[in-house]
């Protein structure tokens, strides 16, 4: 009784204190997995402005709180913790890593952002989304997965550098490649062919200027950010091995040996009263007795072997480390062609001072060896099918060649060379050594944890050499003074790229407003030099050394992000970039950008269970481009003559000196982009996607344009003379159709469309491009039209629909049919691009494939247009013709017929790049490892009406390409 | 301590942000490329620079015969002397080229007189000629007294550079003369214009006035004839060029100036030039020693490599049947050049059987060229040679050592004679006959067996004799136009106008058109009538 009274009294006494007292809570916050203290954690009383952050030791002191207050602990990358204050004095809070949130963190320029907070057009692809199959180069992981990004492997050469275009590119003459940033280091797109695909953790594609402007130069064409895999807390070992066997898919239709014989006999009739009978008999006698399918002879079955071993762990318990060793061996279908690539890469990311100082060092070394086979498709198509591949009496190492006599210098000068011999006798080997890496330091200030200082040092060194040897007995070896001399040449070169980035990041949260500000500086320098002996068998060839002019970029950049109530987002950025390519007065470009986003879901659909995300975005930005190749075209320079370019006064030979052409007015090409988009998600983002509309205008476009004769020291050169606009849309949808314990089915669908237009060219004068070797180009750049439009003659037809040779419409009605009667007919751009990929898992089985389609792109079939003429069959010696000659019955090639719209074909296609099927043994080796075995087909099929070999190549003029192969794959992935 | 570390950190940050913006001024790394001031601070820079102005006649770039400092046209097709030869000889009765397809775009249209404005040779000649003007102008800008003083050039060198300046002006006048002759117009740029200025269009009258005034102004200060270093021009060059514009003045400006022409010819005849006793020694690998050359475009098989007129002519002379490349000291191009019938017939007659100028090889060939691409048809020529006058082969079997005789003394005799026939008051017909006979005697080894009398001196005779003497030296089209035989149908030759025996050409074809790229680059230029 007494105790009860005492307690009641105490309670009564305490009550007013409890009601009136403002208490203080002290505590410490720990990282749930490392048990280390966590500085910088936000500690906030929910619904108020009362908040602090933990200090360097993870401690905090929160005052003015009362019982019942809910206190929220939040930190990026960790799940929020909420406790209710019950008058504790001290407390220890443990925060757990939010795996999902980590996954939603996207790398952007100089920082990261949560995907749901991104205000620009940003697409993130992580390893689970990558394309499966034979991914020899890094771009293979992405093909067809991202709306607005087209990747063209440029044919079947193993490990070739692809052509990547984001939203059609923004330039005409200047580099249209997107900027590739690898672990913070901006690099040449060639790195895509040397990096091992298994090293890649994720890609972030930045498409609109509000996201790319912070990169300044080269960001006009979009940015591809590649992040490589890091170490992990526990030891993980991955070993992947793949084997593939491949062969060619199809051939170009040419006359068979028997068809050829028939055609020759028809064209060159003999008989008693037949005119020219003796001459014709001579032509017939040129035919051989063989039946050679030259396109079969130049190709072979290929092998592909890929091995990579990756070890991730925590070295000495302190340093998260990843080490990868890989080898890729891929043969090309042309005889002798192959690539062998070895990679070693190491990534260390230790942190010190309790995560105050995070460092990351990555090093990558790649060694690639190739034997490069020359392009012989043209030779194989034109080679006489009645001739054999081998001829034991031939002085050309036993290969058949057209000749007038028994020695090697009796070769027929204008005849086609044996393409098999060319492949087997040409020994062109190249080696490439690439070392790149960077070292990044991220320091969170002890006295001010909201402030971080990041410095990134990057280095890239690319060294290569190449040897080209052809024996004197090779018909295709160089000729000097009518004699074959063989080829023996060597060349090498080194190019380096060094970068320093340094910036400060400050972030702060007040109540409903979170903001961060970043400001920094970037310096990058490119150097290079080279040496070639030229052909050492040629007395006229002298070795040459070149040193490239240095290219230097200096940039200052800043960005701020505001988030209000986690609903309204604003990003502002600014970059000022200087380049060494322009004169002092034009050197600097200013690139501002701004974007907003509104999370509609939070405002209108907050409680809606169906709509899980709905965000509207709008952005604007200006980006710059200055990469025209030449480093110093703005500068007046004097060129000194070499020893073959001298002039004599009496008997003194002078090295002459001439001023070179220059353009002091060169300045930045600038692209302004407007982008509007919506990101949506349905049912907890089971179905999610985005839709973007964009419009961009490029001004002061670079183009090689004529200088007024007499005003400069050359008659044409790079100038800023035009403007171009591109508009379009992109749609990206991801759908987890089924997401169950044992059954998963995910599909990704994307669609994009872009339309390029030249708005202005200086003087309104069109520029002709697309050299097909006849002195007249096939394409035109003209105001009001899409770049690379075909500029052709309009074919006239008979009543039965067959084309009349050499007959074209007199479109300007002047009674003459000449160059003025060409017209613009279609262009190389597609009207619509679609991509689709899916993966399906049932228990331990998995199945995946993709599809890509392009509609409306046009191609000029130059193979047909230059060779479908009966008169081409005899050019010194006999040569083969495409089968289309039987359809058209044309006799004589002429500029008009070669550039006729008859040969501009629709290159629309639907292609599957890969289909794979696998089975996983999850408890292999008593549960210590998992093993997945898989098989698949690479490049299984393409559906197209295009009559040439493959509609997928760049430039629009099909003069034969290196064909792609179809491969059957087998492989295993082992995880420990 | 905290404050100190704060300050230190901020300091570190600002230091690390120290802009290396100075690095944005990059210097050229290539040893063969210097920025302007670095170049002119080297000793002997001005000699190299004037050599560069001359070199534009021979070279297409500073790094070899296959490179060009002009775009949009193959290196060979924009070599100065070669385009002059193509436009003035290939378009006439004197020669035909066998390779009409493939890489030789535009040749077919030139030699059959069926060209249109897009022919690459028109771009080549206009751009190359205007580049000559630009290089001369730049030399003049860089060699003003102020510039020379500021660069510390000594007084002796400055005196020599003054002569270089006059030579640059003469080379500029030469380029305008060629453009005036071929296109009837040119863009006018002088050293007073800054680089990048698109100049106005000058017509023939304006160009004529400029060339005349320039040459008369520099004449006194140029070196006396035959006293300058070989490869540099002199008063002889200036007088020759004046003689040429006066001779053609009726064509250019509609006013006859034969008196003025005769004056210049007389000066040249008294200047000390002599006819080389051996005609062919004007066209050998060592023709730079011939006393008959007034000015030649240099070529050297090793040191001044170019696909210029002599390299083309000598390689082209090698016959498909004759395989006489070795005799000429060169590799040959399988029979690229043959003669049209009408030219061959100028040597018909017994008086030409021993004429040194008759270097026609007939062999078993047919004089008729029924198929232009058949290298065995038509006669061939062996006038130029890459062997010296003593028979030693040139230094390279691809590129000729032989210089191209742009201006030769024999031409002066013929010009004097023509002025006399055309009624110049200070040129006598009897003196003219003597001069022609000197040519005839030289051609006949000193014998007067083929000499003419005054009554033979007619306009038709002069025209034919010019071809016999000066064929393949870059004159024929200009001569035919002056004698009104190029266009129209009074004189037809094989393949003229694309007719196998030749057809009449319309009048507007006396002038060549401007290439579309030339027009596009300068809004002040207008296309010639008829194109």
The portion of residues assigned to helices of chain A is under 10%
| Helical content band of chain B | 40-55%
Structural category of chain B: mainly alpha
The name of the CATH topology of the largest domain in chain B is: Serine Threonine Protein Phosphatase 5, Tetratricopeptide repeat
As a percent range, the share of strand residues of chain B is 5-15%
CATH class of the largest domain in chain B: Mainly Alpha
CATH architecture of the largest domain in chain B, please? Alpha Horseshoe
Q: Which shape of chain B, going by the Cα principal axes?
A: globular
How many helices of chain B in DSSP terms? 20
In terms of DSSP E residues, the strand content of chain A is over 45%
What are the key terms here?
heterodimer, A: 976 residues, mainly beta, 22-stranded antiparallel barrel, 56 strands, 9% helix, B: 531 residues, mainly alpha, Serine Threonine Protein Phosphatase 5, Tetratricopeptide repeat, two-stranded antiparallel ribbon, 20 helices, 5% strand
Characterization of the model:
The complex is a heterodimer of chains A (976) and B (531). By secondary structure, chain A is mostly beta strands. In chain A, 9% of the residues lie in helices and 49% in strands. Chain A has 13 helices and 56 strands. In chain A, the strands form 13 sheets. Chain A has a 22-stranded antiparallel beta barrel. A 5-stranded mixed beta sheet of chain A has the order 10-15-16-13-14. In chain A, strand 27 and strand 28 (513-532) form a beta hairpin. The longest helix of chain A has 19 residues, at 2-20. Chain A is globular and about 125 Å long. With 531 residues, chain B is mostly helical. Chain B folds into 3 domains: 1-202 and 479-531, Serine Threonine Protein Phosphatase 5, Tetratricopeptide repeat (Alpha Horseshoe); 222-298 and 403-457, Tetratricopeptide repeat domain (Serine Threonine Protein Phosphatase 5, Tetratricopeptide repeat), CATH 1.25.40; 301-401, no CATH class. Chain B contains 20 helices and 9 strands. Chain B has helices at 2-16, 36-40, 45-55, 80-90, 107-111, 120-142, 145-150, 155-183, 204-218, 235-247, 249-253, 258-269, 309-317, 325-328, 341-344, 409-421, 429-443, 459-470, 476-482, 516-521; strands at residues 33-35, 96-97, 185-187, 201-203, 293-297, 337-338, 360-361, 380-381, 404-408. Chain B has a two-stranded antiparallel sheet with strand order 2-6. In chain B, strands 3-4 form a two-stranded antiparallel ribbon. Chain B has a two-stranded antiparallel sheet with strand order 5-9. In chain B, helix 3 runs parallel beside helix 8 (155-183), helix 9 (204-218) runs antiparallel to helix 10 (235-247) and helix 16 runs antiparallel to helix 17. The longest helix of chain B is centred in the first third of the chain and has 29 residues, at 155-183. Chain B is globular, with a radius of gyration of 26 Å. The mean pLDDT of chain B is 92. At the A-B interface, strand 28, strand 30, strand 34, strand 35 and strand 36 of A face helix 1, strand 1, helix 3, helix 6 and helix 20 of B. Strand 34 of chain A pairs antiparallel with strand 1 of chain B.
């Amino acid at each position: 009784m007494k105790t009860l009274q005492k307690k009641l009294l105490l309670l009564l006494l305490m009550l007013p204190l409890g009601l009136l007292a403002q208490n203080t809570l002290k505590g410490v916050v720990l990282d749930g997995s490392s048990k280390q203290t966590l500085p910088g954690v936000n500690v906030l009383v929910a619904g108020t402005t009362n908040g602090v952050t933990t200090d360097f030791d993870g401690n905090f002191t929160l005052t003015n709180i009362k019982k019942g207050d809910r206190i929220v602990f939040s930190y990026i990358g960790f799940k929020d913790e909420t406790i209710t204050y019950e008058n504790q004095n001290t407390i220890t809070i443990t925060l757990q890593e939010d795996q999902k949130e980590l996954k939603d963190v996207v790398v952007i320029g100089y920082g990261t952002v949560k995907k749901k907070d991104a205000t620009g057009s940003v697409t993130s692809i992580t390893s689970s989304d990558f394309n499966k199959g034979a991914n020899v180069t890094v771009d293979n992981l992405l093909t067809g997965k991202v709306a607005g990004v087209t990747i063209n492997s440029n044919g079947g050469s193993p490990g070739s550098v692809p052509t990547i275009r984001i939203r059609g590119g923004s330039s005409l003459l200047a580099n249209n490649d997107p900027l590739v940033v690898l672990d913070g280091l901006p690099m040449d797109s060639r790195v895509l062919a040397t990096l091992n695909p298994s090293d890649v953790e994720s890609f972030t594609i930045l498409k609109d200027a509000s996201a790319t402007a912070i990169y300044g130069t080269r960001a006009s064409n979009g940015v591809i950010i590649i992040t490589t895999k890091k170490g992990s807390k526990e030891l993980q070992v991955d070993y992947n091995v793949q084997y593939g066997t491949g062969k060619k898919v199809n051939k170009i239709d040419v006359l068979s040996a028997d068809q050829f014989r028939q055609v020759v006999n028809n064209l060159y009739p003999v008989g008693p009263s037949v005119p020219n009978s003796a001459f014709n008999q001579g032509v017939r006698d040129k035919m051989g007795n063989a039946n050679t399918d030259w396109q079969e002879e130049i190709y072979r079955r290929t092998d592909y072997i890929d091995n990579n071993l990756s070890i991730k762990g925590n070295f000495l318990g302190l340093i998260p480390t990843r080490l990868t060793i890989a080898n890729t061996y891929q043969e090309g279908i042309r005889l002798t062609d192959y690539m062998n690539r070895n990679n070693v890469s190491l990534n260390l990311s230790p942190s010190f001072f309790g995560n105050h100082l995070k460092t990351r060092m990555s090093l990558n070394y790649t060694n690639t060896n190739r034997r490069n086979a020359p392009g012989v498709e043209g030779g194989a198509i034109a080679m006489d099918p009645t001739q054999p591949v081998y001829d034991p009496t031939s002085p050309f190492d036993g290969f058949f060649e057209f000749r007038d006599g028994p020695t090697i210098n009796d070769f027929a000068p204008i005849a086609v060379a044996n393409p098999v011999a060319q492949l087997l006798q040409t020994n062109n080997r190249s080696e490439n050594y690439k070392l790149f890496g960077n070292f990044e330091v991220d320091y969170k200030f002890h006295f001010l944890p909201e402030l971080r200082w990041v410095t990134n040092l990057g280095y890239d060194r690319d060294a290569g050499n190449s040897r080209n040897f052809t024996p004197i007995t090779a018909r295709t070896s160089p000729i000097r003074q009518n004699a074959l001399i063989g080829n023996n040449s060597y060349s090498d070169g080194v190019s380096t790229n060094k970068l320093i980035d340094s910036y400060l990041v400050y972030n702060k949260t007040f109540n409903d407003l979170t903001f961060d500000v970043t400001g920094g500086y970037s310096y990058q320098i490119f150097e290079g030099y080279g040496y070639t002996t030229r052909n050492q068998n040629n007395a006229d060839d002298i070795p040459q050394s070149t040193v490239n002019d240095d290219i230097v970029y200096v940039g200052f950049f800043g960005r701020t992000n505001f988030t209000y109530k986690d609903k309204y987002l604003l990003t502002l950025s600014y970059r000022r970039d200087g380049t060494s390519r322009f004169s002092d007065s034009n050197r600097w470009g200013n690139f501002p950008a701004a974007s907003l986003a509104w999370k509609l879901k939070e405002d209108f659909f907050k409680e809606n269970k169906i709509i899980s995300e709905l965000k509207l975005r709008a952005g604007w930005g200006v980006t710059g481009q200055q990469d025209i190749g030449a480093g110093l075209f703005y500068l007046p320079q004097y060129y000194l003559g070499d020893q073959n370019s001298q002039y004599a006064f009496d008997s003194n030979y002078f090295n002459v000196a001439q001023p070179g052409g220059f353009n002091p007015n060169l300045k930045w090409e600038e692209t302004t982009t407007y982008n509007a988009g919506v990101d949506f998600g349905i049912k907890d983002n089971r179905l999610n996607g985005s839709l973007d509309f964009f419009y961009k205008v490029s001004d002061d476009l670079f183009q090689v344009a004529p200088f007024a004769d007499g005003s400069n020291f050359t008659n044409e050169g790079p100038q800023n003379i035009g403007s171009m606009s591109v508009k379009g849309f992109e749609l990206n949808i991801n759908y987890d159709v089924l997401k169950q314990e044992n059954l998963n089915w995910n599909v990704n669908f994307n669609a994009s469309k872009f339309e390029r237009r030249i708005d202005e060219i200086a003087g309104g004068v069109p520029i002709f491009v697309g050299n097909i070797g006849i002195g007249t180009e096939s394409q035109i750049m003209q105001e009001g039209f899409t770049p690379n439009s075909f500029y052709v003659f309009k074919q006239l037809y008979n009543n039965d629909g067959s084309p009349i040779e050499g007959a074209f419409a007199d479109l300007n009605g002047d009674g003459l049919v000449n160059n003025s009667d060409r017209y613009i007919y279609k262009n190389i751009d597609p009207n619509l691009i679609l991509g689709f990929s899916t993966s399906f898992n049932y228990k331990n089985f998995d199945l995946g494939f993709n599809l890509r389609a392009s509609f409306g792109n046009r191609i000029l079939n130059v193979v047909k247009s230059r060779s479908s003429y009966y008169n081409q069959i005899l050019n010194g010696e006999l040569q083969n013709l495409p089968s289309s000659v039987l359809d058209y019955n044309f006799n004589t090639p002429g500029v008009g017929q070669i550039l006729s719209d008859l040969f501009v074909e629709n290159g629309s296609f639907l292609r599957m790049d890969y289909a794979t099927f696998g089975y996983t043994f999850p408890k292999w080796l008593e549960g210590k490892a998992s093993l997945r075995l898989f098989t698949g087909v690479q490049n299984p099929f393409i559906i197209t009406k295009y009559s040439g070999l493959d509609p997928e190549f760049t430039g629009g003029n099909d003069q034969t390409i290196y064909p792609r192969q179809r491969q059957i794959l087998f492989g295993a992935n082992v995880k420990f | 301590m905290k404050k100190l570390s704060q300050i230190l950190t901020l300091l570190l940050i600002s230091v690390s942000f120290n802009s290396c913006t100075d690095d944005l001024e990059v210097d050229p790394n290539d040893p063969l490329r210097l920025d302007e001031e670095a170049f002119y601070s080297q000793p002997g820079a001005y000699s190299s620079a004037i050599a560069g102005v001359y070199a534009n006649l021979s070279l297409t770039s500073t790094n070899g015969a296959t490179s060009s400092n002009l775009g949009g046209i193959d290196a060979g097709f924009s070599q100065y002397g070669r385009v002059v030869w193509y436009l003035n000889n290939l378009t006439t009765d004197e020669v035909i080229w066998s390779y009409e397809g493939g890489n030789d775009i535009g040749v077919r249209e030139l030699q059959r007189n069926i060209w249109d404005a897009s022919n690459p040779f028109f771009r080549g000649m206009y751009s190359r000629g205007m580049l000559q003007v630009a290089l001369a102008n730049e030399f003049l800008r860089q060699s003003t007294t102020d510039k020379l003083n500021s660069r510390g050039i000594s007084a002796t060198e400055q005196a020599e550079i003054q002569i270089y300046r006059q030579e640059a002006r003469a080379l500029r006048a030469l380029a305008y003369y060629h453009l005036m002759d071929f296109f009837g117009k040119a863009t006018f740029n002088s050293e007073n214009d800054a680089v990048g200025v698109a100049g106005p269009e000058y017509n023939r009258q304006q160009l004529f006035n400029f060339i005349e005034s320039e040459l008369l102004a520099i004449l006194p200060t140029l070196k006396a004839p035959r006293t300058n270093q070989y490869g540099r021009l002199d008063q002889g060059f200036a007088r020759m060029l004046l003689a040429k514009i006066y001779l053609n003045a009726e064509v250019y400006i509609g006013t006859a100036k034969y008196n003025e022409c005769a004056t210049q010819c007389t000066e040249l005849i008294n200047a000390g030039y002599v006819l080389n006793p051996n005609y062919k020694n004007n066209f050998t690998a060592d023709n730079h020693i011939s006393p008959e050359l007034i000015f030649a475009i240099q070529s050297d098989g090793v040191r001044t490599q170019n696909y210029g007129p002599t390299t083309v002519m000598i390689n082209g002379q090698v016959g498909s049947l004759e395989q006489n490349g070795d005799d000429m000291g060169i590799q040959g191009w399988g029979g690229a050049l043959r003669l049209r019938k009408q030219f061959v017939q100028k040597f018909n007659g017994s008086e030409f059987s021993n004429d040194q100028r008759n270097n026609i090889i007939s062999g078993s060939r047919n004089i008729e060229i029924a198929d232009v691409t058949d290298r065995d048809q038509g006669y061939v020529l062996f006038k130029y040679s890459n062997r010296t006058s003593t028979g030693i082969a040139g230094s390279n079997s691809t590129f000729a050592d032989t210089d191209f005789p742009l201006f030769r003394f024999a031409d002066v005799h013929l010009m004097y004679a023509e002025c006399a026939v055309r009624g110049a008051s200070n040129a006598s017909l009897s003196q003219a006959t003597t001069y022609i006979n000197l040519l005839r005697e030289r051609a006949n080894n000193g014998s007067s067996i083929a000499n003419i009398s005054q009554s033979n001196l007619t306009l038709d005779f002069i025209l034919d004799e010019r071809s016999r003497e000066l064929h393949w030296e870059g004159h024929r089209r200009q001569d035919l136009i002056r004698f009104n035989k190029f266009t129209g149908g009074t004189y037809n030759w094989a393949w003229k106008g694309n007719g196998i025996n030749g057809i009449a050409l319309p009048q507007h074809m006396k002038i060549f058109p401007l290439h579309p790229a030339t027009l596009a680059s300068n809004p002040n230029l207008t296309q010639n009538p008829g194109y």
